[in-house]
Specification:
Elements (H helix, E strand, L loop, with lengths): L7 E7 L6 H11 L4 E6 L6 H8 L8 E5 L9 H12 L6 E5 L6 H14 L5 E11 H15 L9 H10 L3 E5 L6 H14 L4 E4 L7 H5 L6 H7 L15 H5 L2 E7 L5 H11 L4 E10 L2 E11 L2 E9 L6 H10 L16 E7 L4 H10 L4
Parallel strand pairs: 1-4, 1-5, 2-3, 2-4, 5-6, 6-7
Antiparallel strand pairs: 8-12, 9-10, 9-12, 10-11
């Protein structure tokens, strides 16, 4: 590290599937004045979250985005992830690094990677400054509250989703309690009280749609690995993951990507969401296009009981020819998946669930395709 050069702070954003990590990240980027590098990790072979950041034009011209797919940075991509952080920290002008982890990542394992790196490289150019866990207050109240209350009395060694939720709540120094508008004050107090039982040290910030000031996030103590390890009342009771095990295998969570160039029939697809949507699916996110609208990109999102389809942007192929050529000039990667007939139009959805029937879902989706 060059003499006098400040170490680059790394903000790690974690949280269970659908908690609102990307929304919070976008809010931070809107407020950010420094030159930021961004690493986004998502399950599956297509990084939907990073595409949202790009297509939503959230990032500034000075923000670089690194996408890490086909694994989690807490296990299968851990070494590759640390290499990316190291490379970015040496880039000219970078003042901070934001990392959005996969929804099933274990922040403890990621923090351990930073600790190991610092022990091996005494003059590291970066440090883990903060771990923010985004928590869906509504989902905790509806689906997990009773399980969390009882978790401290369980000694079941088979890890499950609730253990993952607890891992993420336990191992951080800031908890962003999101979607607070969906609960009454008494319910919020109960959720916070339960969380505080397992994480007595972290700052808890209530918010709606990830809206929180940067001062609330960045003020306060920097992340302390030992303090995080020792802060939870049930940390020792939870079975730690064995080295080298993949997240999908441990928690029984798996994902797949549905891709199809042909458009959906709007009525059939909405019927699938309303009548036939599998309850085993935890989270889904992606882009769809309907046969009755060749102009607009539709954003499809599902988390738990909530699902929505909304116009997000326009397909590049729907632009005027002059504007289209300008996109090709500045963003040549668009042409990598360009189709002679459909252009950039494509149904592309990542499905994440536990115990779902992949083949049946694909068959049902295919039946929703239009002309």
């Amino acid at each position: 590290m060059a003499l006098g050069k400040k170490k680059i702070p790394v903000l790690l954003i974690t949280g269970y599937l659908g908690s609102g990590k990307t929304t919070f990240l976008n809010e931070m980027l809107r407020q950010e004045q420094r030159k930021i590098a961004l690493i986004v990790n998502d399950m599956g072979s297509i990084n939907i979250d990073a595409q949202l950041v790009k297509k939503g034009k959230i990032m500034s011209a000075d923000t670089g985005v690194i996408e890490m797919t086909n694994g989690c940075i807490c296990c299968t991509l851990r070494d590759e992830f640390m290499q990316e952080v190291e490379k970015i920290s040496r880039a000219k002008g970078i003042e901070a690094i934001f990392v959005e982890a996969s929804g099933i990542s274990d922040p403890g394992s990621i923090a351990e990677a930073f600790l190991s790196y610092e022990e091996m490289n005494k003059k590291a150019d970066f440090y883990l400054s903060k771990i923010v866990t985004v928590v869906d207050a509504d989902r905790i109240n509806r689906e997990f509250l009773e399980e969390i209350k009882e978790a401290g009395e369980q000694d079941d060694e088979d890890p499950d989703i609730i253990n993952l939720v607890l891992d993420q709540i336990e191992f951080c120094n800031t908890i962003l309690l999101n979607k607070c508008d969906l609960l009454e004050d008494a319910q919020l107090d109960e959720v916070e009280k339960t969380i505080r039982h397992f994480q007595p040290e972290a700052d808890i910030i209530r918010c709606i749609k990830g809206r929180v000031s940067q001062d609330a996030i960045f003020n306060g103590e920097k992340f302390d690995y030992d303090k995080a390890m020792n802060s939870s009342t049930i940390q020792k009771a939870l079975k730690r993951k064995e080295d080298g095990e993949e997240c999908e295998e441990e928690y029984g969570i798996s994902s797949f990507v549905y891709e199809e160039r042909r458009p959906f029939d709007r009525e059939r697809f909405m019927g699938f969401l309303e009548k036939d949507y599998p309850g085993e699916l935890i989270r889904a996110k992606g882009y769809v296009w309907f046969s009755d609208d060749s102009v607009h990109v539709q954003l499809f999102e599902q988390a738990g009981r909530n699902a929505s389809v909304s116009e997000f942007s326009n397909w590049v192929d729907a632009f005027e020819e002059k504007d289209k050529q300008e996109v090709f000039e500045y963003y040549p990667e668009v042409l990598e998946e360009w189709d002679e007939k459909y252009g950039d139009r494509m149904n592309q959805i990542v499905f994440i669930g536990k115990g779902h029937d992949k083949e049946h879902i694909i068959k049902t989706l295919n039946a929703c395709l239009g002309a």
